[in-house]
SHSP domain-containing protein
Amino acid sequence: MQTSMETIYEDFEPLCKWRKDQTSDALEVHLPGFKRQQLKVQINTSGMLVIAGERRTDEDKLKRISRFRREFPVSEDCQPSQIHAKFSNGILYLVMPKQIIPTVSSVPSATENVKASTATSSLMNLNKRICLEIMTLAISLAIVGAYVNNYCHCSPSD
């Protein structure tokens, strides 16, 4: 006579540790007793990272299944195609790289303002001197031309 085994599901919440920085988010999920084949990691249609798993732990005449399911929001600047996972010694490691967006400072510092102001001032002074020299040369040429036209009567050579 064969007795059927009753299935008992034991839900649990694994220990999870986050590490977030500017370049990536990393998650450690502690899953002692699990094997890689018993885990499922995916991003659902809502953009949530879903980690689930179950493993069988038969005891006596009972069929026990230890299981979990966790959902985590994925950072908006995360690159989903670059997410990678590794399972080692009962710990699932997930790394979610972020898109690196260069930041441009819109407000220059006081030092930058002084440097820019000094450079602009020097350039303006140089431009003023060049303009004055050109104007002086043009006026001098006009005066010489007028003098030659009025006082020099050059006769054409025969």
Observations:
- The chain has two domains: 6-97, 109-152.
- Helices lie at 110-151.
